[in-house]
Amino acid sequence: MKHLPSERHTLSILVDNEAGVLARIVGLFSARGYNIDSLTVADVSGDHAVSRITVVTNGPPPVIEQIIAQLDRIVPVHRVLDLTALGPHVEREMALVKVAGKGAQRDEALRIADIFRARPVDTTTGSFVFEVSGPTSKVDQFIALMREVGLVEVARTGVVAIARGAEAV
Amino acid sequence: MSAELTGAEIVVQALTDLGVEVIFGYPGGAVLPIYDALFAQGRIRHILVRHEQAAVHAAEGYARSSGKVGVVLVTSGPGATNAVTGITDALMDSIPLVVLTGQVPTHLIGTDAFQECDTVGITRHCSKHNYLVQDTARLGGVIHEAFYIARSGRPGPVVIDIPKDVQILKARYEKPGVIGHKTYKPQVKGNLSSIEAAVEMIAAAERPIFYTGGGIINSGPVATQLLRELARVTGAPVTSTLMGLGTMPNEHPQFLGMLGMHGSYEANMAMNRCDLMVCLGARFDDRVTGRLDAFSPNSKKIHVDIDRSSLNKTVRVDLGILGDVGGVMEDMLKVWKARGKKAGDLEQWWSDIAGWRARDSFGFEQKGETLLPQHAIKRLYEMTKAQKPIISTEVGQHQMWAAQHFGFDAPNKWLTSGGLGTMGYGLPAAIGAQVANPGALCIDIAGEASIQMNIQELGTASQYNLPVKIFIINNQYMGMVRQWQELNHGSRYSHSYSESLPDFVKLGEAYGWKGIVIDSASGLDEGIAAMLAHDGPVIVDCRVSKLANCFPMIPSGASHVDMILHADETRGEADEDAKALV
């Protein structure tokens, strides 16, 4: 089954917000040789009881199926949702992008940022830090363009995702 | 309102409330408060082992032979790390255990304190679940929850790490009413429409086979009866994994014996040629499937398993049924009867099977005075079967010969390390089984190499007057290693000869055991009789043919139809791909 084409899947994993739970999830991926393209985690409940982990992974369909089944049997995991398989959903990530330069380079950086609706959140006479958010492809593109006008460093959140519509998952 | 108890007292009270009768353990600094609480009570028996690994294997032997949860108590640091092999073994073979480990006081955690280790970190991926209890008030609830997790769904080991201050501080403890877990609720009941579909497939099949595993034993004794009934009404052949031996009676005409790498020719050929495979509580392990792309190429496959991740893991199936195998078989039988199904015409199928059976793949010929290991095990079986013995094994050739030549007629009588393949498993497992079944005949069929991996447990059996028998198939080699070196590595016997073997008789005697040597075919029966006649523990050094190998065999990476039936033409050099396989 390893020779089947890989697919990119975004999984939402609701877990008990307890010590070690992230290590269980991450350790499962490393122990069984699954891929993690990005991972985010945060407490999402009013009473701090539940965290939501978003994992972007890739693999052939039988491997994705196995990843979900393996995650599902971890004791503190409440639910595993394959947002990619469930249908329409929104994916976003945010990046902080530091660019250094003078003169025309600096003007170009601001112009590109404007087109991408990226906000300068820090500035010195020789640099900017831009905040950009959107789908992964948009963030990728923005960073690629900034490389040409003095990119210094990047920090990215990784993908968070949620299903469209009024219903909770 | 209940009185306040120390954490250590809560441990003992919760275990008592859970019906625990026996703990296997070893004391140390970080569990002294719990040992003190044990000292003050008379309800729980503590069996002092000689090494923490053995405590876990003994608890496994106890659990597997009794159907109860095995309980282990060890100290922090080396106590916990020594237990890791046993915990992993229990995870691989789905054995319900609760392992209590001491930990340094909470304020010292993370400081590299004396005998500190990250027990929850180390055991996170070799246990079903684990806990670090940081609040005495939570301790009782955690212990009850741990037992629930250990024995529900697919059973497994649960580790509870308890810092020393948590054992000493006081809190209220009350026995919980309904025990459960807020999110862990495994699906037990199989989907009825899937079960109906399965029944229709079984009734329509021309060449069906039931491929059964340890899940049936874990499901409880009723599941064994249900399997036998299912076999009866369908008339289909049954084969079993190493873990499932005993669910079908050994001599039953519909039983094809064990399948897989060292399974019978008829079982493997029937798996290859069937048109419908019904897998009940087994997991398509690589030792069973052989080469995956050649595994049973023309069959529809039904898989019943309580673990969703076992379905479609390595072999894609046509119908997966998630649920407890006992309950699913019960529903299958109900549907079968309600729909008036009758066993199909399987005459041609049974005639094919009779042809494969005629090859007598487990056959051997004992000639002369050099004792064949197969013959030694066969006679041990014949001379003990009336007593319905509990058999444990170590790992290697003797284990496979025992699986082939010792017949099992009931579940919970066969204790062997299947998934992890842990040498040193058999003696402590036999000790645990003997503790659970004081009147039973418990025999560890061992190899001379494996037995030395937990040989210190001779002392445990002596201390508690456990009349365990060890039957060492002594060929002076790590036989399975040597066999693979012959098959794949040009017979270069790199470090597989057992040099400097101890005198097992004297060794046994040093621990207060009776020692017996068997060194000829003509002395075999007399030696076994002497072993059985002694009412204490006995170690038998049974010296067998040094170079006998375990056949039949599906070489690693080969398909079921490429079995090696006999020892000739097996020496050689494997290609790189085959050498890389385990």
Automatic annotation (TrEMBL), chain A:
GO biological process: isoleucine biosynthetic process; L-valine biosynthetic process
Listed GO CC annotations: cytosol
Gene Ontology MF terms in the entry: acetolactate synthase activity; acetolactate synthase regulator activity
InterPro entries: Acetalactate_synth_ssu (IPR004789), Acetolactate_synth/TF_NikR_C (IPR027271), Acetolactate_synth_ssu_C (IPR019455), ACT-like_dom_sf (IPR045865), ACT_dom (IPR002912), AHAS_ACT (IPR039557), AHAS_small-like_ACT (IPR054480)
Pathway(s) served: Amino-acid biosynthesis; L-valine biosynthesis; L-valine from pyruvate: step 1/4; Amino-acid biosynthesis; L-isoleucine biosynthesis; L-isoleucine from 2-oxobutanoate: step 1/4
Reaction(s) catalysed by this chain's protein: 2 pyruvate + H(+) = (2S)-2-acetolactate + CO2
Annotated ACT domain residues: 10-88
Keyword field contains Amino-acid biosynthesis: yes
Keywords on record: Amino-acid biosynthesis, Branched-chain amino acid biosynthesis, Transferase
EC number: 2.2.1.6
One Pfam assignment: ACT_AHAS_ss
Family affiliation: Belongs to the acetolactate synthase small subunit family.
Function (record text): Catalyzes the conversion of 2 pyruvate molecules into acetolactate in the first common step of the biosynthetic pathway of the branched-amino acids such as leucine, isoleucine, and valine.
Quaternary structure and partners: Dimer of large and small chains.
Protein name: Acetolactate synthase small subunit
Protein species of origin: Sandarakinorhabdus glacialis
Gene: ilvH
TrEMBL record, chain B:
Gene coding for it: ilvI
Thiamine pyrophosphate enzyme TPP-binding domain location: 395-542
CDD domains, per the entry: TPP_AHAS (cd02015), TPP_PYR_POX_like (cd07035)
Domain Thiamine pyrophosphate enzyme N-terminal TPP-binding: 6-121
Recorded GO MF terms: acetolactate synthase activity; flavin adenine dinucleotide binding; magnesium ion binding; thiamine pyrophosphate binding
Annotated ranges, domain Thiamine pyrophosphate enzyme central: 195-330
Catalysed reaction equations from the record: 2 pyruvate + H(+) = (2S)-2-acetolactate + CO2
GO biological process: isoleucine biosynthetic process; L-valine biosynthetic process
Entry EC no(s): 2.2.1.6
Similarity remark: Belongs to the TPP enzyme family.
Protein name: Acetolactate synthase
GO cellular component terms attached to this protein's record: acetolactate synthase complex
